[in-house]
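Minutes, project check-in

Agenda point 3 was the complex the collaborators sent over. CS summarized: three entities, 1014 residues total, and the question is how they sit relative to each other. Sequences were read into the notes so everyone works from the same version.
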Amino acid sequence: MTASPAPVLLHLIALALLAAFPWVGGEFYVDLALTLMILALFALSLDLLVGYTGLVSFGHAAFFGLAGYVLAMITPETEPVSLWAALAACLAASAAAALVIGWFSVRTSGIYFIMITLAFAQMLYYFLSESPAFGGSDGLFVNFRPVAAVGDWLLFDLDDPMVFYYFVLATLLAGYALLTTILRAPFGQVLQGIRINEGRTRALGFPTPRYKLVSFVIAGTLAGLAGFLEAVHTGYVSPGHLSWHESGIVLMVVILGGRGTLYGPVLGAFTFGLLRNGLQDVTEHWILFMGLFIVALVLFLPGGIAGLIRRAPKGGSQ
Amino acid sequence: MTDTTRARPSRRRFLAGAAATGAIASTGFVPTRFAIGGQAPVKVGILLPYSGTYASLGEAITNGMKMRIEQAGGTLGGRPVEYIAIDSEASPPQAPRHTKKLVIKDQVDFLVGPVHSGVALAMAQVVAGRDKPIMIIPNAGANALTRGQCARNIFRASFSNWQTCYPCGQVMADDGHKTVVTMTWKYAAGNEIMAAGTELFKEFGGAVIKDIRVPFPDVEFQAHLSEIAALKPDAVLAFFSGGGAIKFVKDYAAAGLKDSIPLYGPGFLTEGLTEGQGAAAEGIKTTLHYARTLDTPVNRMFLEAYKKAYNKEADVFAVQGFDTGSLLLQAIDATEGDTGADASPAMIEALSAAEVPDSPRGPWRMSEAHNPIMDIYLRQVEGGVNKILGVASRDLEDPATGCKLDT
Amino acid sequence: MDLAQFLVQALNGVQYGLLLFLVASGLTLIFGIMGIINLAHGAFYMIGAYLAYWLVGLTDNLFLAILLGIPIAVAVGLVIERLLIARLYDRDHLDQVLLTYGLILILNETQKILWGSDFHGVPVPEMLAGSVPLTENQAYPVYRLFISAVCLGVAAGMWLVIARTRLGMMIRAGASNREMTSALGINIGRVFAIVFALGVALAAFSGMIGAPVSSVYPGMGDRVLIISFVVVVIGGIGSVKGAFIGALLIGLADTFGRVLVPDFASMVIYALMALVLLWRPQGLFGRAP
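CS then shared the predicted structure for the full assembly.
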């Protein structure tokens, strides 16, 4: 995590690439990049739990989907809603849900934590998919993108694809910066202490359950932020957004990229997304090749893609 | 016809079954020049499930559609056809990305799909209001698609959920039943179909004793069958599909309820599944816009040609794919092969007034809300096949409540 | 609900619970005893169902099909363990998650290539095809009772093997301390290979024996995966007895949940799991961490 020159340079190059991409990529690929940035943010939020706090959540899609549902519910049928109000509502909802679910879940650990987070996510999934008021299994539309205005003055227009792209990029960057700051702060050090040895951290006088809960709420809120962006982007939410399949995919992205690093999940999101997209182009049996790729990766590349980078000259703090 | 290679093979998928037609047999081979006067191909984007539970539906629809276009010479408006197919995975969260790929990257002229209603609604969100492509839905039955969410450039070649079981109520009442229990999965299609099926039943003075809803896609029915046995209704109206329908029908019979409480439902309960259901399906009455046993020259020819081409029995989904092909042909014939953005209004106009006289399901025409107006048949399983007892509802049109189209 | 109805539903619940135990039995071994998070459990179950469909087509006899199918499943299990799983014992659990997720994709696509994507039914064997009367108008299929009996047999067999045999002793020893067991001169690699293959065979067996009631179709494994994990976790990892009681509890809760609180039926088992884990974080019969 220390700012040794090589990683900083790599980060800047990646940022420059993402920032320049809308000028060179076609409309579709720009949209795909945008989708993958949202997935990256979603994966980053999970990595705070999986990679840094040692809590493997298998229900993370609950917060992602919930935020989208809140946006769909508060957006009127005939006019847009204010971006600030929408953001506040969506983040508050996912934070509240994470607080409740986390309050129960952090009492367990290991595989039991995996299962209890799955249980809560499934309950929310069934609740939404069976309530006609929330669109039932067919889901809900978000008819308008929120308006970013101060008074009558339009700050920027999210309906413009370019503007929306940079809005998502900026949000991803903000999420990344926030997590970097958190992890460098004493609070983050305690979280990493919990992952390595919870007993010892507790013995040092830190109330570990409370730390885990705060970590869970931060992760849930950030997942909500990603879910909010996704709902704005596609204009559609469905119970499928909260399903265990989605929780599984984002968990896989984190492991694939390399947990316990912040660039890992971002790399994982882009690798997974581009691979899925590319394989579907070339073969009917893309699922088979996806499976083979994943298996090969586990066998030959422990620590995910980030493991490759970490094996290069070290600049990390751990 | 079979020895010309006019239709280019799909870049993404080469469906094994399609090889049998011969016309698309040059797997993976992309001709260096176009077969006909250097004309650019018409791009048909396909977003259907090719993996998971709904995969067989996706294949049947694709087969039916390609067969229809092959029968018309393998071209659309005299131009070769390029099929670009993507596996929808029947996953609504993935649907926007898949749709955008076909619409934005591949710039398809027509978009065919999907099976799953949630995917359809997500696709509609991308497609609605654009000049290109024209979207044709070969299955997804969500009522909203041709009601509140109807759109100028979206057409349905299949059915609305409401249509499939609206006549059920009358059928049950005609059979002298006064009380019914409904049973289906707790999801949108189940609720819509059951609401339609009990509408007329209530008008005729029947009573719905209980609505049993099974968590989707659970197939453990035993507790509910015991409930039904205790409630003793005159009849049960049920909707399940695919593997769930096979299991439900078998469980219902094994619980000994079949003889005392007759089973009704939309045709998906038994269509194409009687082989798996065996004797358990005998006597079940269903309503649907098609039955394999429909005795018309068009249907006989269709079944024969399909069997020959794909070495498989055609089903209702293949019919819907076939009719999707017919709509594609009609749209492009209206502009004599022009699919440019300017040609869109003419194609939409042609489809809005489309009549499909040569459908295996019998002639049908497009409603103002872009949904088929068609006969719904009453069928009963007899000797392992769905026999047609008659027309349950002639020229049935979806009420299309809330659909406002500008054109 | 009168008494007769209550008894009928209790029977349904117990019967469903036994079925769940059978379906989860393979996972009880691989995940519960060996501690490997095997997401491909459902895929093995599906492969079993397809084997039954394919072999019944060839032999016209379900029992013969099962006899032929089990060696195939054992072989598949051994190959997968030796080639893939064996390399992961020293690794983080999350690598197992990723690897077995990859296996799901491979097995699903293999199924599609081998058997296509249609829905199939497998007929109930002639001698078990009837039903016995239960109430005035409801009968109970003999085959379901037969499955219940098979479940009891599998449960008893698993318990005997693990608690009473030398293999079981080695398994328990290996699961709690690999290095130590290995130092004692036990070929731990071979023991784990056998257990994994047995787990795959049990998953496939439950798919085969369940095929006549469940029917056979792509994606059918997804439906049993999550519920199997719920069974093992509620019961407590490492306990066959726990998995058995957990399965019965879920069967009963699910059945009565459907009848008594239909609006929340789909959430009942998850609520039950959450409650159990809050009360006993290591599951009903799990060792305290």
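Noted in discussion: Confidence is low (pLDDT under 50) at residues 313-318 of chain A.
Follow-up: revisit at the next meeting once the mutant set is ready.
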